[in-house]
């Protein structure tokens, strides 16, 4: 089974998560490089649901059995680089999974800015090929009490030193759900 992990990351946590997934699943790794990669332009494009476009990919997503799209959620929205990828490739992939390292925790997943809203958007854009959507809230790596601090949430980045405990358990469960019979051989 061939797997491609495609990601966009502005601050590094989603890149870290994508690299972990690619390593664990022996998958190819493909970053998305928007043509306009300034925060202000990306936020504007996200809000108006437009795409700044992105540079050509090294790997063809249609050539893989599964594609895992990894990226952040901003203001409860599917960000422009991810939306652009889905609009271009969702019709061509066999199975597409969506993963995010986000600031909103599990307790707010159904709120206006929660990740379930974005999962619904992804499912609508992808349709039948949509597989598993999973969130890895940054609050899973914060110590008790820090999860309520928006400053701590915004400043914390995933790393080898904090990718333990609940977030690692969720990661291992997710990987097992993607490839229930284990890591693909020959990939």
What would your notes on this structure say?
It is a single chain. Helix content is 34%, strand content 16%. By secondary structure, it is α/β, with parallel strands linked by helices. It has a five-stranded parallel β-sheet, sandwiched between helices. Strands 4-5 form a two-stranded antiparallel sheet. Helix 4 links the parallel strand 6 and strand 7 (130-135). The protein starts with a strand and ends in a 9-residue tail after the last helix. The model has no long low-confidence stretch (mean pLDDT 86).
Summarize the structure.
This protein is an alpha/beta fold.
- The string of secondary-structure elements, in order, is EHEHEEEHEHEHH
Count of DSSP helices?
A: 6
Query: Which strand order spans the largest sheet, edge to edge or round the barrel?
Result: 2-1-3-6-7
Quantity of strands, as a count:
7
Secondary structure: elements and pairs:
Blueprint: E1 3-7, H1 13-25, E2 28-31, H2 39-47, E3 66-70, E4 73-74, E5 77-78, H3 80-89, E6 96-100, H4 115-126, E7 130-135, H5 150-155, H6 166-178
Parallel strand pairs: 1-2, 1-3, 3-6, 6-7
Antiparallel strand pairs: 4-5
């Amino acid at each position: 089974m061939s797997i491609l992990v495609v990601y966009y990351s502005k601050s590094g946590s989603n890149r870290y998560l994508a690299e972990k997934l690619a390593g664990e699943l022996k998958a190819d790794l493909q970053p998305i490089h928007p043509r306009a990669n300034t925060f202000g332009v990306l936020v504007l494009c996200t809000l108006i649901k437009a795409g700044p476009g992105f540079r050509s990919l090294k790997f063809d997503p249609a050539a893989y059995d599964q594609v895992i799209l990894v990226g952040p959620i901003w203001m409860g929205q599917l960000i422009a680089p991810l939306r652009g990828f889905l609009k271009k490739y969702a019709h061509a992939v066999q199975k597409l999974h969506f993963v995010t390292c986000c600031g909103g925790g599990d307790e707010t997943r159904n709120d206006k800015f929660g990740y379930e809203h974005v999962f619904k958007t992804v499912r609508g854009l992808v349709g039948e090929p949509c597989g598993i959507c999973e969130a890895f809230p940054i609050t899973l790596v914060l110590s008790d009490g820090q999860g309520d601090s928006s400053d701590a949430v915004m400043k914390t980045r995933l790393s080898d030193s904090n990718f333990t405990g609940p977030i690692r358990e969720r990661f291992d469960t997710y990987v097992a759900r993607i490839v229930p019979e284990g890591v693909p051989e020959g990939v």
